Amino acid sequence: QLQLVESGGGLVQPGGSLRLSCAASGFTLDYYDIGWFRQAPGKEREGVSCISSSGRNTHYADSVKGRFTISKDNARNTVYLQMNSLKPEDTAVYYCAADGPRWGILTRCPDEYDYWGQGTQVTVSS
Known about the structure:
- The chain is mainly beta.
- It has strands at about 5, 10, 20-25, 35-40, 45-50, 60, 70-75, 80-85, 90-100, 115, 120-125.
- Strand 5 (about 45-50) and strand 6 (about 60) form a beta hairpin.
- The model has no long low-confidence stretch (mean pLDDT about 95).
């Protein structure tokens, strides 16, 4: 069964950090571009970041640029989202998604994804 599982969410104070993980099972992420998304209550889903299958290309939404870092560990079949300097407006359910298989330069985040995780809640509050 092809599956993505997010973990690492939780409650953190403003200015704090969290690292989200997206682990794949049933398939290898070596040939998949991965995206992170978030959705806050009453708001549309927002693309946060994406990384190419090789891990060489990354893209970020303006709202998180300079604070979030996406990385890929193909040996562990896992993608990470390091979130620093968190703000209350970062509160949302965070999802990861996989698009592929493909290999090549990722010039922008994919428009569509093939597999989605179930999400992990991130709450930034004092």
